[in-house]
Amino acid sequence: MKLGFLVDLSRCMGCMACAVSCKAENDVPLHSWRLRVKYIDQGEFPEVKRHFVPLRCNHCENAPCERICPVSALHYLPNGIVNVDHNRCIGCASCMMACPYNAIYIDPITNSADKCTYCAHRIEVGMMPACVVACPTHANIFGDLDDPESEISKYLKEHKDIMVRKPELNTKPKHFYVRGSTVDLDPLSSERPEGYTLFTEVKFLDHIGGH
Amino acid sequence: MLGSEVTFDVALPKVVWGWLVSTNMWAKSIATGSFLLGLYFIKKYPEKDAFFRKWVPILGLIFIGITLLVTVLDLHHMFRFWKIFVFAHFTSAVTLGAWVVSGFVVVLLISFWSWITGNKKLFDKVMIPGFLLAFFSTIYTAGIMGEATARELWVFPAEMIQMLLSATLAGSAVYLLIMTIYKVEMEEVKRELGYILIGSAFLSGMMYLGEILFARMHSEFSHRAVEILTFGSLAPMFWLGVFLTFIIPTILVGIANEKKKYEYALLGSISALIGLWFVKHSWLLAPQMLPLS
Question: Taking the complete model, does pTM exceed 0.95, yes or no?
Answer without folding.
Answer: no
